[in-house]
Amino acid sequence: MFAKITTIISVFLLSVTMVAAVPQGGSLVCANDAGDTCPPGYTCCGPIIPGVGGNCRKLKPDEFCIF
What range does the record give for the signal peptide (predicted)? Predict the structure, then answer.
């Protein structure tokens, strides 16, 4: 029983952490016609489509965007 409760609490805390990592109140679009940029800590990744833009991503230290 204790293991089941611990698992449920762990999943809940992980979910809250993942949601908190995404900026709230705005889209994660960059380099579009409106001139939107990524929030601090995020990188604008492609493909950057004309009129649509690219996507803001939070990269790990060993990751990079190829576009």
Answer: 1-21
Antiparallel, parallel or unpaired: β 43-49 and 29-30? unpaired
Residue type, position 40, single letter: P
Whole-number CA gyration radius for the chain = 17
- Residue 9 identity: I
| Location of structure tokens 């579009």 | 32
Whether the model pTM is above 0.70: no
| Residue 16, helix vs strand vs coil | helix
Write down how long the chain is: 67
Quick check: 51 and 32 in contact, CB under 8 A? yes
Residue type, 33: D
